[in-house]
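Researcher: Good morning. I'm working through a list of sequences from a screen, and I'd like to move beyond sequence-only analysis. For each chain I'm collecting a predicted structure so we can compare shapes side by side. This is the next one on the list. No need for commentary yet; just the structure.
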Amino acid sequence: MIDLRHYYIKYRRVLSGIAFALLIGLIFYTVNNPALVGAAATSRQLPIYCVDRNDNRVAFSFDAAWGNEDTQQLIDILAEYGVKTTFFVVGDWVDKYPESVKALSDAGHEVMNHSSNHAHFSQLSDAEIIADINFCNDKIESITGKRPNLFRCPYGEYDDHVISTVNSIGMYAIQWDVDSLDWKGISSDEITKRVVSNVKSGSIVLFHNAAENTPEALAGILEALIGKGFTIVPVSELIMTDNYTIDHTGKQLAR
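Model: Good morning. Structure tokens for this chain:
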């Protein structure tokens, strides 16, 4: 009698080897084919990290979630240089500091949405995300008279369903391409160096309203960038609101 097990084992190993070789070949081809890699990457839902511009316009943004130690000082420094920016505020922060929300708006800065209570949005359902954003929008609008249309994800965290849900209600999800790292408590010189050396036309810079050394660094950053020919504007004046795409790096491009 012929022992078929021998042939089964032999040819199973051969077929497994062929399949493995094909898999390795496919991986190699994909990794070395930029068109395929780009197509896969651009299928993701991404926020706006920066904008494709060549006019040296950049946007400063400040996240306000907990403290309020430096908000008025930031307003005063920005006023000295005639600069308007965007503050992304949490709904709970609005409840605690309504006078600061009004002061920001009265000074001409944008007051935009940073969620109701800084939750991890990837853990929320679509309905919960929409309710959270609208709840915060209502609070901001009741003070400023303007309903936000920009949103920054808490912790900078997001996934496809978070971004698609934000987009579905007419909001623009805004990230950043330059992180001042002021939240780490680094020195004002380090903050200044990080920002000035990394900003380029179309950049969105992340600061915080209650970081230890941001006020000390801000004037020097403004002077350096203005001296280099940059114009600092609010985020809404930097981004495109229609006829655009977002590439795999998060850069917003005109169609």
